[in-house]
Amino acid sequence: MRVAVTGATGRLGRALVAALANAPFTGPAGPIAWDRAAFDLDSPVAVGALLDRDRPEVVVHTAAWSDVDGCAREPELAMQRNGAATGSLAEACASRSIDLLAVSTNEVFDGSRTDGQGYRPDDRPAPGNPYGASKLEGERLAAAAYAHTTGGSLGILRTAWLFGAPGRDFPSRILEAAERAAATGERLRAVADEWGTPSYVHDVAEAIVELLAADTVAGTHHVVNGLVASRADWARDVVMRSGADVEVVDVSSTTWRRASTPPRWGVLSPTPLPSGEPLRPWPDAMADYAPALRRARSRARA
Prior knowledge:
By secondary structure, the chain is α/β, with parallel strands linked by helices. It has 9 helices and 12 strands. The protein has 2 domains: about 5-160 and about 200-220, 3-Layer(aba) Sandwich (Rossmann fold), CATH 3.40.50; about 170-195 and about 225-265 and about 280-300, Alpha-Beta Complex (UDP-galactose 4-epimerase, domain 1), CATH 3.90.25.
C-alpha cells in the first residue's frame, strides 16, 4: 500500500512516518513523506500534480496550523490553512479515488458538556474558537468532496492534547516553567478547570497504522489515550517524573489572558480500533516519554 503523509516533519507526522516505515504493508519503499515544501497549506493548488507524481493509494493529512492562539488572532488565515487547504486536498484525492484520512481535533466541540461523558463521533460539533471552527470547516469540505465519489473513502480522525517530540509540547513547557519556579522559590501555577486526555503521538500513530492495515479508514474516529486529566493533573505528573522541587497549585483558566478560548471539557470518547484494544492510559505513555523529555531539557540547558 502506498501511503502519503502530509506534515511529515510535524509532531504527529514524524511519528506516523516512523510507524509506517515498520509496517509490512507499506513495502520496502516505506511511506511517502510530504513536508511543507511538497504540500504547503498556504498554496495547496499543486496537490493534484503531487498525487499524480507519487500515486499514493491513501493520504493521511496531519498537516495543520495548530497554533490555537494564532488562529484566534488571524481567523481567516486559519480557515485557509485548516479549512480550504484540507478541502483542496480532499477534492484532488476524491477525484482520483484515493482514500483520505484527515486528522482533526477535540476543539470542534466547545467543551460546554457537563455530564462527565466524552464527546462521541455522532455528537453535533459546535466549535468555541477559531481553531476549532477552521478544523471543522476542513471536515465539512472533505465530506463534501467525497459525497458523490464512487471510489475512495474518507476518514476523519479526531485526537486531543498531543504530546511528544519535536517542538515545545505541554510537558516541555511545564518542565521549563517548573525549573524557573524552583530556581526562584515560587510555586508552579497550573490550570485545573480544563479537562482532556493527553495523547502520545507514537500511540496515535500506531492506531492510524492499525486502521490502515485493517482497511477501516472510512468514518469518524476518536483516538486518544486512556483516562482523563486536568492540565494541573498533567503538570503534576510531569513535575513528579522530572524530579523538580516545586509545588504545583491549581488555578483557574482565567488566570492568564489568551487570544483563544480552549474547551473546558475537551474529552473525546475513544472509538474502537480494529484490534478491539484501547490505547493505554496516558500516564503509562508519559512514563515512556519522560526519559526523552528529560534528555531534551538537559540539552537545552547545556
